[in-house]
Specification:
- This protein is an alpha+beta fold.
- The chain has two domains: 7-83 and 240-303, 2,3-Dihydroxybiphenyl 1,2-Dioxygenase, domain 1, CATH 3.10.180.10; 93-232, Roll (2,3-Dihydroxybiphenyl 1,2-Dioxygenase, domain 1), CATH 3.10.180.10.
- It contains six helices and 17 strands.
- The strands form two sheets. Strands 5, 6, 7, 8, 9, 10, 11, 12 and 13 form a nine-stranded mixed beta sheet that branches.
- A hairpin with a 6-residue loop joins strand 3 (55-62) and strand 4 (69-77).
Length: 308
C-alpha cells in the first residue's frame, strides 16, 4: 500500500501527573518532550466517548535513545476509574512496556529505593534469539514495566528506549495473523515460544505461570509488538464499560503515512471502529482514528501532515 508505519506511542491513563511525570522524566530519563497539552476540552475525542466536553491533559515523552513514546493522559471528564483494582499479568489488553537497558544488575543498584522492582533479574535462552535478560518493576500507579538486555539489544547509554509494547490476547495464533495481515507487522523477530513460563510468577502472583508469546516487527518502521497469551492462569477479559482515559494502559498507537488510505483499508476489512478519522489542527497537522483488534483492544492509527 506504499505506507510506512510502526508503533508510535503507548498511552497510559494516570491519576496524578505530578507524580507520574517526574517518575518517567527523572527516574527513567524520559527527558525528551514530543508534545503536551494543558487541561482543556478536546473536541476531537468526542466521538471516542460519544459525549461532549471531554476534558484531559497530556504529555508525551521519550528517552534519549528514542524508541516508542509514552503518553501520559490525565482525564477529568468523563471521570476516570481504575480499569482493574487487581491487575494481573495476562489480563487482556496492553500489559507492559519493555525498555532496553545496558546492564540489569547495575540498574538494580542505581535505582534501588527509587523504583518498585517486582522481580529479580532473570536470564533465559530464547530460540533463534539467544540470551534474554529481564527484570520487572511497576511505576508509581502500578503499571508494569519490563527492563531487558542482551546482545540483540544494543544500548548506547543506561536506557535504550521503549523497544516494544506487550499486549495480552486470548488466542495467540489468531492475533499473530491479525497483526501480521492487517497492521503491517510482517517480520517475526521471536517466534511463538513458552520460555517465559515459570519466570514471571513474581509478577503474576501465581505458581508456574504458563505463557506463550511472540515478538513482531514491521519492515517499514521502528517499534515492535509482543503478543502474549497467558493460559495458566487464564488472562481475564477487558472489564465491561472500560473507557479511554481510565487508569492504566489504554492503547497502542501505530503510525501511518496516509490516514485516509489506512481508514479505507480497515473499513474494507470489516474492522470495528471506535471513531471516524479526526483531524487535529496543530503544528503536526495530525489525524487519527480508533478501532478494535479481535479481542476488543483499542488501537489507534496516527498520521502527521494530513489535511482535512
Amino acid at each position: 500500500m506504499g505506507e510506512t508505519w510502526a508503533v508510535h506511542h503507548v498511552a497510559i491513563g494516570v491519576k496524578d501527573l505530578q507524580i507520574m511525570r517526574p517518575f518517567y522524566q527523572d527516574v527513567l530519563e524520559f527527558k525528551k518532550v514530543f508534545a503536551e497539552t494543558a487541561h482543556t476540552e478536546h473536541k476531537h475525542m468526542r466521538e471516542v466517548f460519544r459525549m461532549p466536553n471531554t476534558m484531559h491533559s497530556m504529555t508525551m515523552l521519550n528517552q534519549e535513545d528514542e524508541g516508542i513514546f509514552v503518553e501520559l493522559i490525565r482525564m477529568t471528564n468523563p471521570a476516570p476509574r481504575a480499569i482493574r483494582k487487581d491487575f494481573r499479568y495476562g489480563d487482556i489488553g496492553v500489559t507492559k512496556t519493555t525498555i532496553a537497558v545496558s546492564d540489569l544488575e547495575q540498574l538494580c543498584k542505581e535505582l534501588e529505593g527509587r523504583v518498585n522492582f517486582c522481580s529479580k533479574p532473570k536470564s533465559v535462552e530464547i530460540p533463534r534469539w539467544g540470551d534474554y535478560h529481564l527484570l520487572y518493576c511497576r511505576d508509581p500507579e502500578g503499571n508494569l514495566i519490563e527492563f531487558v538486555s542482551g546482545k540483540n539489544l544494543p544500548v548506547r547509554s543506561r536506557f535504550g528506549g521503549v523497544r516494544w509494547v506487550g499486549v495480552s490476547v486470548t488466542d495467540l495464533q489468531r492475533s499473530m495473523s491479525f497483526y501480521q495481515k492487517h497492521l503491517g507487522f510482517d517480520t517475526i523477530v521471536i517466534d511463538s515460544h513458552e520460555r517465559f513460563s515459570g519466570l514471571v510468577d513474581e509478577v503474576s502472583g501465581a505458581n508456574q505461570t504458563k505463557v506463550r508469546s511472540c515478538l513482531l516487527a514491521s519492515s517499514r518502521g521502528r517499534g515492535m509488538i509482543e503478543l502474549l497469551e497467558v493460559f495458566e492462569p487464564r488472562g481475564r477479559s477487558i472489564p465491561f464499560s472500560t473507557s479511554w482515559g481510565d487508569f492504566g494502559y489504554l492503547q497502542v498507537c501505530l503510525y501511518c503515512d496516509d490516514i485516509r488510505e489506512r481508514a479505507a483499508y480497515c473499513e474494507k476489512e470489516g474492522m470495528e471502529f471506535l471513531s471516524r478519522t479526526q483531524f487535529v489542527h496543530d503544528k503536526h497537522g495530525g489525524a487519527f482514528f480508533y478501532f478494535r483488534d479481535p479481542d476488543g483492544i483499542p488501537i489507534e492509527f496516527l498520521a502527521f501532515n494530513q489535511e482535512a
